Amino acid sequence: MDASTQSTELTGSFTAAAWDRIAPIMAEIEALPLLQQLSDGTLPPEVFRHYILQDALYLKHYARCLAIVAAKAPDNAQVLRFLGSAQKAITVEQGLHAGFLTQFGISSADVASAEPSPAGFAYTNFLLATAYHSSYAVALSSILPCFWIYWHVGEAIKNRPVIEGNAFQAWINTYGDPQFAAGAREVIALTDIAARAASPVERAQMTDVFVRASQYEWMFWDSAWRLETWPV
User: One of this protein's GO BP terms (predicted)?
Assistant: First the structure.
């Protein structure tokens, strides 16, 4: 099952409705020049360098969000399932980052001294605030788009013809990999379990943060394409 057919398989579920809700956002994400040029290997190295450095900064905060969400899970079974899926995603992304940081000449000192872009700063602070201050169900919904959108994009690009010598092929392979897909499917399933136990008000909050995080996903990629820095 690929990411594009996942919502069909989940017909009637909370996550299927949430995915349908972000259809206009997904159309904008799929049209991003960064992703199109990453797919065909023509992305300028300085753009990818900016993106992967910002993504390394993002992952440090995202990992903490996942730990907070896991701690709020209502039972040990969900704690363990969530930690397992989160570990898969983090392990995969850390391996990817390690390779690209070396390939593009980014040192550990560069990462340590790097400043998050405005979009990256806003996104991670939104996730951290939601994780700390919201219920398990709402917090879970806020971290789901990162899993699901990357899976969707990775699957879509993976199915295009392979460009020989594409410097970004490892990125495509990572997010089109079955291991990453398994982690994403687990988080989708956990979100639906949480939604079934949620009140109508809480479900509305779940939808709101799912949409907002999806908007931030677009902003994050777009900001990398523009080599965004702080204006003042």
Answer: thiamine diphosphate biosynthetic process
Asked if residue 36 is part of any domain, the answer here is no
* Distance in angstroms (rounded) separating the CA atoms of residues 215 and 26: 9
**Cβ burial 33-70 (10 Å sphere, 16+ → b, else e):** ebbebbbeeebeeebbbbbbbbbbbbbebbeebbebbb
In this structure, are residues 189 and 74 in contact, taking their beta carbons and an 8 Å threshold? no
Q: Does the residue 18 lie in any domain?
A: no
Residue 113 lies in a domain: yes
Alpha carbon of 193 to those of 18, 58, 74, 81: distances in Å? 14, 27, 11, 12
> Model-level pTM?
0.91
Looking up residue 131, the CATH number of its domain turns out to be 1.20.910.10
Tens digits of residue pLDDT in 158-214: 888 888 889 999 899 888 888 889 889 989 999 999 999 999 999 999 999 999 999
- What six digits make up the tokens of 157? 């690009």
Tell me how many domains the chain contains. 1
Instruction: DSSP letter for 22, please.
Output: T
> Is residue 34 a part of any domain in this protein?
no
Residue 113 token pair: 């001294």
Owning domain of residue 54: 43-225
